[in-house]
Design a protein that fits this description.
The complex is a heterodimer of chains A (about 325) and B (about 450). In chain A, strand 1, helix 1 and strand 2 form a beta-alpha-beta unit. Chain A is about 35% helix and about 15% strand. Chain A is α/β, with parallel strands linked by helices and about 325 residues long. Chain B has a 5-stranded parallel beta sheet, with helices on both faces. In chain B, strands 1-2 form a two-stranded antiparallel sheet. A two-stranded antiparallel ribbon of chain B has the order 6-7. In chain B, helix 3 runs antiparallel to helix 13, helix 3 crosses helix 14 and helix 7 packs parallel to helix 8. Chain B is globular. The chains are: A alpha/beta (about 325), B alpha/beta (about 450).
């Protein structure tokens, strides 16, 4: 925001209240009410206004209190933001960022817990990013704001409270990450695990346990869901010959399905085992804690899937 | 919530409570008060805080003082009298006495009239082209030429227009050529939209006219966003959006009016209330007194105008523009008119409305004829000028269609560009594969695709 006066933030409670999760802390004080806008409670309203402002020269950052509420505004995200550059033959670019927490938090039920990664990632015209660590959040958000195309930026509520070590390079004001590049968080040789957002942490924990049992897992933090870094994924699978995809969203037409297709198209001959897909349960999120736990992937699920892929058979039934 | 919070930002703190105007003290920390919602520290009327002795008569509430009354009085669902409609010319094109309007010069008036006739002639010929199967779709503006052209004439070129799809006249006024219209409808390689939009879904950055969106009413909130941008840049311009009576039922209309009021955005909302949303009459669309009354509920200044009176539209839009820019406020204009044509080439409107109704509006209330009578009364137009104009236009338009039809279609590369600013690798790969396939199997693909 200090680098470009055209950048402004709008959404519910982003100003005086400093964001429902305090993500915009201090911004109102620093940049004033013209650039940090508290809006009426109308997702379709402020998304539409944001798109219009982007059509005409500004660079809005639109916050959804949760991406579940972006459903009220999806027409502006898909029909307006994603398609206008194409429909106008390049006359209208839409440099806008839609951001906010996505996916499951804890104990907030079906209408606060859905992952929208595969929804937005299926739409040409959009870029979809999902940070895991502080480094990701800083580098990717800056990239998103500077990008000339509309970006959907999927954060995670539980990660807001988590701390990560950061290097001096990351803290430097010039730090930025490229869009469309995955990060290999941990190198390995026996099985590739792809994940994004909170599931990267789970995948790393699973890799720790697997290492103790002699399985070397390579963990890929996707960072960018669209464009998808197919070459990094395929290069890894060609090395490990096994793949486990992890996501919190629903399994059908999910991010894992797309990754699986990419690997089958490009690296089928390298696969030594069927691809394992770990995803959320195919039900709306239940509220009760015991059921909720059953509905989202756990570290143990990833460990079991990796072992199955490595022919250390664990029957699916044993999962329960 | 922004309004409430703004009150807390005020330096002058007055104490007044929710229930009555006692001097009970409350914490003024914004968050604490936001959550408790018990007191409003400062309102626009709080310069004269109400004394304790009056606390049974009124409440000091954000937005002003509200009187208490003993009667239980529900607001009526309608006003006793419908909102009147501003007009300058009567049905015979005569100035109504006592009117106030913005005088139009002969030069501007002639261009307005010429553009209205051009628009109607273009509509007639392009519509016929669709009936002949030469283009897939078309939508006419017949009966609404005055709203199109007179509003465009009252605006400046710097004002940004967010159209629906029945405002080609605005683009015509701004200099989009007949050949450009034809190229778009025939989606040839000179179409400035690269053949990506349905016919009559024009757009041109050069003319500050945003590409038409088929989704109804989304352009209304986009206009507010652009107005906010103009305001931040302190430009001497406003944004203007058009929509129909049907569009006013979309959530976007309501969100946009509310946001425009709250953000004090310089935007003009022009509703073409033409009586019909495809086959839905306005009696099935809403039960309010049209659209104009909705402005007040959102705190938006509003006017109802005779949409078939070019001078009234011109005057109202010019006044609205002035207020929007100098006062930093949105304005709603409801133009009463009638869709004389079918909704589009996809329907036959005589199946759902009486032909006599269409005929009456076409003959007795024609906006073009009314303006012409006024022009003739001023000695600015005559029968000879009329026949010259019509004949020339028909020939010119038939020629543009022939040219547009003979030009080749957009190249294959146009399928892939502009999805993103820079095409990602998967898109580049797809384009490459397609080119290779075309080269390998030319006999299986149509000849009219240029790589």
């Amino acid at each position: 925001m200090s680098a470009d006066p055209k950048v402004f933030l709008m959404g519910e409670e982003v100003g005086e209240y400093q964001g429902a999760y305090k993500i915009s802390k201090g911004l109102l004080e620093k940049y004033g009410p013209e650039r940090v806008l508290d809006t009426p409670i109308t997702e379709a309203g402020f998304s539409g206004i944001g798109v219009g402002a982007a059509y005409y020269g500004l660079r809005p950052v639109v916050e959804f209190m949760t991406f579940n509420f972006s459903m009220q505004a999806i027409d502006h995200i898909i029909n307006s933001a994603a398609k206008s550059n194409y429909m106008s033959a390049g006359q209208i670019s839409v440099p806008i960022v839609f951001r906010g927490p996505n996916g499951a938090a804890a104990g907030v039920g079906a209408q606060h817990s859905q992952c929208y990664a595969s929804w937005y990632a299926s739409c040409p015209g959009l870029k979809v990013l999902s940070p895991y660590s502080s480094e990701d959040a800083r580098g990717l958000l800056k990239a998103a704001i500077r990008d000339p195309d509309p970006v959907v930026f999927l954060e995670n509520e539980l990660l807001y409270g988590e701390s990560f070590p950061v290097s001096a390079e990351v803290l430097d004001s010039s730090f930025c990450l490229p869009i469309g590049k995955a990060k290999i968080e941990r190198e390995g040789k026996d099985v590739t695990i792809t994940a994004f957002s909170k599931m990267v942490g789970y995948a790393l924990k699973a890799a720790d346990t697997l290492a103790k049992e002699g399985i070397s897992a390579e963990v890929i933090n996707l960072r960018s869901i669209r464009p998808l870094d197919r070459s990094t994924i395929n290069a890894s699978v060609r090395k490990t010959n096994r793949l486990v995809t992890v996501e919190e969203g629903f399994p059908q037409h999910g991010v894992g399905a797309e990754i699986c297709t990419s690997v089958i198209e490009e690296s089928f001959g390298y696969l030594d085992a069927p691809v394992e897909r770990i995803a959320g349960a195919d039900v709306p999120m239940p509220y009760a804690a015991n059921l909720e736990r059953m509905a989202v992937p756990q570290v143990e699920d990833i460990i079991r899937a990796a072992k199955r892929a490595c022919h250390r058979s664990v029957p699916v039934a044993a999962a329960a | 919530m922004r309004r409430f919070l703004n009150h807390f930002k005020s330096k002058t703190i007055h104490r007044s409570s929710w229930n009555s105007c006692t001097n009970e003290s409350h914490p003024h920390h914004p968050i604490a008060t936001l959550l408790s919602l018990r007191s409003f520290s400062s309102t626009t009327t709080a310069q004269n805080p109400i004394q304790d002795s009056n606390h049974n008569q009124a409440i000091d509430f954000p937005g002003g003082t509200i009187k208490f009354i003993p009667e239980m009085r529900f607001l009526s669902e309608s006003l006793e009298e419908r909102i009147p409609c501003y007009r300058v010319l009567d049905d015979n094109g005569q100035l109504i006495s006592g009117n106030n309007f913005v005088q139009v010069s002969e030069e501007v008036a002639v261009k307005m009239y010429t553009d209205m006739v051009t628009l109607r002639t273009m509509d007639t010929i392009f519509y016929e082209a669709q009936r002949q199967g030469r283009i897939s779709f078309y939508v006419t503006t017949i009966g609404e030429e005055a709203i199109n052209v007179a509003s465009a004439a009252a605006l400046s070129m710097d004002d940004v227009v967010f159209p629906q799809y029945r405002e080609a006249g605005v683009l015509l006024w701004r200099g989009f050529t007949l050949q450009e219209f034809a190229n778009q409808c025939f989606s040839n390689k000179y179409d400035n939209g690269k053949g990506r939009q349905m016919p009559a879904h024009y757009g041109s950055n050069k003319h500050n006219y945003l590409t038409v969106a088929s989704t109804i009413a989304t352009q209304i909130s986009h206009a507010v966003g652009a107005a906010y941008s103009l305001k931040m840049d302190k430009k001497d311009a406003c944004s203007v959006t058009f929509f129909g009576d049907g569009g006013s039922s979309e959530g976007d209309f309501h969100a946009a009016l509310n946001f425009a009021a709250v953000t004090e955005a310089p935007v003009i909302f022009i509703c073409r209330n033409n009586g019909w949303a495809i086959s839905t009459p306005i009696s099935d669309q809403f039960r309010s007194d049209g659209v104009v009354v909705k402005g007040q509920a959102y705190g938006v200044r509003s006017i109802r105008v005779d949409g078939n009176d070019a001078l009234a539209i011109y005057s109202a839009v010019q006044a609205a523009r002035q207020m929007a820019i100098t006062e930093g406020r949105p304005i709603l204009i409801e133009a009463l008119t009638y869709r004389v044509g079918h909704h589009s080439t996809s329907d036959d409107s005589t199946k759902y409305r009486p032909a006599s109704e269409i005929e009456w509006w076409r003959m007795a209330r024609d906006p073009v004829a009314r303006f012409r009578k006024w022009m003739e009364g001023n000695g600015w137009w005559n029968g000879m000028a009329e026949s010259e104009l019509i004949n020339g236009l028909r020939q010119q338009l038939l020629h543009t269609i022939q040219v547009a039809e003979s030009v080749e279609k957009p190249p294959l590369a146009d399928l892939f560009t502009d999805v993103y600013d820079v095409p990602p690798s998967n898109l580049r790969d797809q384009e490459q594969w397609l080119k290779e396939t075309l080269e390998k199997h030319p006999q299986d693909y149509p000849e009219n695709i240029s790589v």
